[in-house]
Structures are given as structure tokens and as C-alpha cells.
Specification:
Length: about 325
């Protein structure tokens, strides 16, 4: 009887100690705004689904804000703590002399994520075939449009003089406008590009990511004030991102597709895997969260070429690599 009492007492004490230790760990809620829903952001969804954020004591509340302007409005108005968006938006905010800078602290993708899609099959496509065609473009000042113009100019095509360029369609409505309209070409992200190809609405004929080289296409950023007040939270967030980036590098497109399927319920697993493989093959997914100076300068060159660089912002002004470097070092 005495032995049973001792065992029961020990078990009770163990439960109390465990509860006391657990009560010290707190979960931080993070409002995360993504600029669009895309397979291009696979590592982000992997970080959520594999519990990497949870392991770092973070609860992610993900919202899709559909467009760079809406995403930055959400971030600057405290509708989001962290935003996944094109790094060019931080330059636009800086040019408006915002009191609270948008700081890039972790890079997710390192190439353009769009593909050139044609209405008709183009087995022998050459870039010069675009001359005098009707091209459904992206939002003025956004990364897809600027990279698109940059690539076209590399092939001696002036997008405004040599094309019938349409730019009055909202980002979210571009796929539908291409399918129902008269445009012969369009830039599309995955899985939309592959879906169109399967349904016979279009044909993937080139990759803007392969043509443009490395650029900080989408990064995680936060207001400078948030980063100063939540240094450990931002570090934990970056740790989770890095874990996901490594996981994506080490696993097959099929395994990644299975993991992120909940975010693309209307897309077949085989198509998801094909899209992921296409991105992996052109090194679109960054292997670590550090945004390099060469990539930043490439971004500014692309913006300048498009006439959209409001001012020359030095690398150290809007980039924080210290957190990512600490994460990788540990």
C-alpha cells in the first residue's frame, strides 16, 4: 500500500513539474500575408505543414492579399506582421519616405517565377516571334512585368514599341482574361501555366526565370519597428524558413507536392509535382534565407531598365542579413 502511494505521489509530482516547465513556453502568433497563392512559394507551405514554425514556438495565420500594393498596405497598417512579397516593394515604400521602413530579412525565391504562355503551339519558338503580337502584361511596377520587360529587351524587343501590350487587368484576373480574350501571349505562374497547358488553353514556351538570372524575387519582410521589438520572434521565423528550404532541397518534387497539396486542392498531385520540378530545375527556390548584394543590384538594374527605380537604395539600407547568418551559423 505504501509503495502504491509513493508511486502515485511521484507521478503527481512529475505532472506538476512538467506542467510548470511547459507553462514557461509561449506561442507567438504571426499574421503572415502572402502576395499570391503559388507553388512558387512551396518552401513556405512546407514550413507550415511540416511543423517547422510550430517547433520554433510560432503559430502562423496565413492570408493571401493578392498583389504587391495590397500586401504592403496590409503590412504598413499592421494588418500583417510579416509579408511575403517582391523585394521591390520595400524600395517603393522607402521612396515614399515612410517613417517605418520595410526590411527584407529572409529570401524565399531567387528567380522570376513566371513562364511565357502562348495561345497556339510554338514548337520552334523564337523570341522575335513576339514582335507585333498582343501580349497580356502584368501590373506596372511589379516584378513579373519588370522582369518580363528586362528579358524582352535582352532579346532586342521593345515591349512598348514592338508589342500590343495590355496592362489594365488586375493581377488576380490575368489568367481568366487571357483565356477569354484576344491576347496571344501572357506571363503566368505555376500551377496556372501547367493547368492551362493541360486544358488546351495555352502552351508553355519559355521561362522568364531562366532568362533573367538570380534576383530577390520574393522575400519575407517586416517593418523595422516590428523587427526591433521582436528580434527573437523574427529569428525563430527565419529558422523555420531555413529548415523548410533545406527540406525542399533534400526531397523529391513528388514528396513536396504531397506536403503542400492542402494549399492547392484543385490541382492534381502529378501537376503539382511537375510544377515543383520545373521550379527546382531552374533553381527558383533559394537554398538559404540570405539575400545577397549581387542579387539586390540585379533587382535595381531590372527596375532601372523598366524606368521604375525611384531612387538608388544602398544594400544595407533595406536588407538585414544578420539574422539569417546567425541562423545558418547555428
Amino acid at each position: 500500500m505504501k509503495k502504491r502511494f509513493c508511486i502515485a505521489l511521484f507521478s503527481s509530482l512529475l505532472l506538476i513539474i512538467t506542467a510548470a516547465c511547459g507553462s514557461g513556453s509561449q506561442t507567438s502568433n504571426i499574421q503572415l500575408a502572402e502576395v499570391t497563392r503559388s507553388i512558387f512559394y512551396a518552401p513556405q507551405y512546407v514550413a507550415i505543414e511540416k511543423g517547422f514554425f510550430e517547433e520554433e514556438g510560432l503559430a502562423i495565420e496565413l492570408q493571401t492579399t493578392w498583389g504587391g500594393d495590397k500586401t504592403m498596405t496590409s503590412l504598413l497598417s499592421d494588418g500583417a506582421d510579416i509579408a511575403l512579397v517582391g523585394s521591390e516593394t520595400s524600395i517603393y515604400v522607402q521612396a515614399q519616405e515612410s517613417k517605418d521602413k520595410a526590411i527584407n530579412f529572409a529570401q524565399l525565391t531567387q528567380t522570376d517565377g513566371t513562364f511565357l504562355v502562348a495561345k497556339a503551339p510554338k514548337p520552334d519558338f523564337k523570341w522575335e516571334d513576339l514582335r507585333n503580337s498582343t501580349f497580356l502584361g502584368q501590373r506596372v511596377g511589379g516584378m513579373p512585368q519588370m522582369v518580363g520587360e528586362y528579358v524582352l529587351k535582352q532579346h532586342d524587343i521593345d515591349p512598348h514599341a514592338d508589342l500590343n501590350l495590355i496592362q489594365n487587368v488586375d493581377f488576380a484576373n490575368i489568367p481568366g482574361a487571357f483565356a477569354s480574350g484576344d491576347a496571344e501571349y501572357v506571363q503566368l505562374f505555376e500551377p496556372t501555366a501547367s493547368t492551362f497547358e493541360k486544358e488546351g488553353k495555352g502552351h508553355i514556351i519559355a521561362s522568364f526565370g531562366k532568362e533573367s538570372g538570380h534576383v530577390p524575387y520574393t522575400t519575407f519582410m517586416a517593418k523595422e519597428s516590428f523587427m526591433n521589438e521582436n528580434k527573437e520572434t523574427v529569428k525563430s521565423f527565419t529558422k523555420a524558413v531555413y529548415k523548410a528550404q533545406q527540406w525542399v532541397q533534400e526531397h523529391s518534387a513528388e514528396e513536396i507536392a504531397e506536403t503542400i497539396q492542402p494549399y492547392f486542392e484543385d490541382t492534381e498531385p502529378e501537376m503539382l509535382a511537375a510544377s515543383i520540378d520545373r521550379y527546382k530545375s531552374q533553381d527558383s527556390f533559394a537554398t538559404d534565407p540570405i539575400l545577397g548584394k549581387k542579387e539586390w543590384n540585379n533587382l535595381k538594374d531590372i527596375m532601372d531598365e523598366a524606368g521604375e527605380l525611384p531612387e538608388d537604395v544602398p544594400y544595407d539600407e533595406l536588407i538585414n542579413t544578420k539574422i539569417a547568418e546567425e541562423v545558418i551559423g547555428n
